[in-house]
């Protein structure tokens, strides 16, 4: 008896990938995903059946917010038993934030959730949309011994499949728009589709999907720069209602050693604000205590983001604050890898 095709749910949220050129007017307009197989007949060669669901109002991803992440997570939850894999079409600008947030929100995920997008619209002559879409669907439909090969939230772009919460958008015009500098690709597409099995995330087999929808947005990101003054730092730390701050420091987690700087942070932490030290370098890790310029931060017990990306750090703060993690265990839990977001 022939195996039944793998069922994939395509969730279209917006972004360039969902656009098509009207050759009469030259304008870009939203693509009708119900006619997907007519426009991309190559999809017929994949052994899967594809259903689509679209946001009523396709979004440029600059307008994505945690409410939209909840909507995507809710769609996955609603259709979790019916489909073997999920492909989320999303604008590339904030795709790494959405991928990171979803990775925390979908606890005990055992199926692939692959985000993809493109730099050029589907109908464009040199488009990257077709390859990204076809391979994202192919990756999401990979099965071995009746189980999905990929069991995590990932991001597919320009021949590489990455762990979503390890990615950053690094280029606004190259097709190779994303990088994952602290974690190897999960798969690479060339003549063959090569899966890097050792890099795949494996959660608990016994637990059912748990979808977390509480995210706290009383958070901020502050990037250090030479000349950052006391007024700016204290204003940020005194934002009414602020609960968490991602501090983008230099190199391996280094920062100014002046008293006013360290005391302002210490004071904020005493008031219960969670401060996370993340490096502003694209790759590498925070290692407090390696230089004198990070020793003071270590002493005041600032949270180490290790090699987490800023995208994964800010969404982790939203997730842990939303889940009301106790003050006592917050630092330990943040410094623990929850979904493979840090080494
Ligand atoms: N501005 C677009 C967006 O992020 C760019 C893209 O789709 O890649 O929605």
Automatic annotation (TrEMBL):
Domain L-asparaginase N-terminal: 7-199
Domain named Asparaginase/glutaminase C-terminal: residues: 218-334
Active-site residue numbers: 16, 16 (o-isoaspartyl threonine intermediate)
Single Gene Ontology BP annotation: aspartate family amino acid metabolic process
Enzyme class: hydrolase
Top-rank lineage group of the source organism: Bacteria
Annotated coiled-coil segments of the chain: none
PROSITE patterns on file: ASN_GLN_ASE_1, ASN_GLN_ASE_3
Protein family per UniProt: Belongs to the asparaginase 1 family.
The protein's name in its UniProt record: asparaginase
Species: Zeaxanthinibacter enoshimensis
């Amino acid at each position: 008896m022939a195996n039944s095709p793998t069922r994939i749910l395509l969730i279209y949220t917006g972004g360039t990938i969902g656009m098509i050129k009207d050759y009469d007017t030259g304008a870009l307009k939203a693509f009708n995903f119900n006619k997907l197989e007519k426009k991309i007949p190559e999809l017929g060669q994949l052994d899967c059946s594809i259903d689509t669901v679209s946001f009523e109002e396709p979004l440029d991803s600059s307008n994505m917010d945690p409410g939209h992440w909840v909507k995507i997570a809710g769609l996955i939850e609603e259709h979790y038993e019916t489909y073997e894999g999920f492909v989320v079409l999303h604008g590339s600008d904030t795709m790494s934030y959405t991928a990171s947030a979803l990775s925390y929100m979908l606890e005990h995920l055992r199926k692939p959730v692959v985000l993809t997008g493109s730099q050029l619209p589907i109908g464009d002559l040199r488009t990257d949309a077709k390859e990204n879409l076809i391979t994202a669907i192919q990756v999401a439909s990979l099965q071995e011994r009746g189980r999905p090969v990929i069991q995590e939230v990932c991001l597919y772009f320009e021949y590489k499949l990455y762990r979503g919460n390890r990615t950053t958008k690094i280029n606004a015009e190259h097709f190779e728009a994303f990088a994952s500098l602290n974690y190897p690709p999960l798969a690479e597409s060339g003549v063959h589709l090569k899966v890097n099995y050792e890099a795949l995330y494996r959660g608990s087999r016994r637990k059912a999907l748990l979808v977390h929808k509480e995210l706290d947005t009383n958070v901020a990101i502050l990037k250090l720069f030479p000349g950052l003054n006391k007024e700016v730092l204290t204003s940020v730390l005194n934002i009414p209602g602020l609960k968490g701050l991602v501090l983008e420091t230099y190199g391996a987690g280094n920062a100014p050693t002046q008293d006013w700087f360290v005391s302002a942070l210490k004071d904020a932490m005493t008031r219960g604000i969670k401060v996370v030290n993340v490096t502003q370098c694209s790759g590498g890790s925070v290692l407090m205590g390696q230089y004198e310029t990070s020793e003071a931060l270590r002493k005041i017990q600032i949270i180490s983001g290790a090699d987490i990306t800023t995208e994964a750090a800010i969404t982790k703060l939203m997730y842990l604050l939303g889940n009301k993690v106790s003050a006592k265990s917050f630092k330990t839990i943040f410094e623990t890898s929850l979904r493979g977001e840090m080494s």
